[in-house]
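A reminder before we start the practical. When you read a complex entry, don't treat the lines as separate problems. The point of joint prediction is that each chain is placed relative to the others, so the output describes one connected object in space. Small molecules and nucleic acid strands, if listed, are placed in the same frame. In the example below there are two entries. Take a minute to note the order of the lines before looking further.
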Amino acid sequence: MKMSFLRFNSLNRRSRTRIPSLVFAGAFAAIILIAVFIRTLESGVMSFGASVLKAETALKQTAATFEAALLADKQTLFEENKDLKKRLGEANAKLWSFTLLEKENRELKALLGRNMGDTDSETVLATVLASPPRSTYGTLVLDIGARHGITRGALVFLGGNLALGTISDVFNETAKVLLYSAAGREVNAMLGDAPFPVKARGRGSEFEINIPRGTDIKEGDLLRLPGIMPIIIGVVRAVEDEPTKSFVRVLAGLPANIYALETVLVRPHFITDTDETRAETQNESNKEAYP
Amino acid sequence: MQLRIILDTIFIVSVFIFPWWLSAMFGAALAFRFPKFFELVVGGLLIDLFYGASVAHFTYLFTIGAIGMLLLIEFIRTRLRIFQ
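Here is the predicted structure of the whole assembly.
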């Protein structure tokens, strides 16, 4: 009977010890190279990635046109359904905004002519090239960049007063948006009628807020950024109140489905005083003070 | 070599088009098929650069993950009879 064994000679043993060391050396060299050229690389990658995603979108549109021609009736129904869902989302978004605006209007009238400032400042429409779950870090990739006047820290809206996040990185033709709900991101916000600010912690597609028991919070309450302008970032979906605990866990969902975003609005001159921008401003002023 | 270049191109494009886990599975399969598949690390880096925000935590999570995966696969590969 013939049996086959692994050849275990000196050459094989040498190659065995050589492969992991080669892998280590390669990985080490790659890390050094990446660390040196990272910024140059990032710009190129953004440009290449955006081209790939734009090509994919164009291909999808062509395919949809062919599909519509072949399945006219089903396609009509599908489009109608999609359109109605979109309209429903918009209507809900407007409703939330109106609830808040109505309340604010009353408060402002009480203050006699308080000026809210220019809310309709310049707005740029952007197509979303990539959004979660494709985008892994809770970011959006937009098809507009520095050429369109976008700046870091600018607020990104879905429409009306519904904000999704802030611009985190700007390139020539593209920009990245870090969602407020990105895992691990903490945002100072106001919740419902609570008289104090809360820290909303992003969990990917929702927020988690811990507030003291006894605070009057219910489902449907709005999570908004502090400030004169009412900017909504979430809506309370669940309140977990356990009698043995001194804090209540509130889960707030996003005002829109981030998995199906097609377009967003960017207000380049509307920069919020978020933790990141504040830290950045602090760094810049430190650099100026201690060059 | 020709096959590797074609599959490399598909892998790099897949990083931008498919969800990360699908690209990771594809990359792992290629790392088993081809020796010293450093393109896997390039794929991880592309994901980090394209989707990662500079202000977020763990900006190079996928690059580190890809290096770890490559080392693990290379370790297993050299000990499997079919790849001798």
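Discuss with your neighbour: Residues 45 and 67 of chain B are 10 Å apart (CA to CA). What might explain this?
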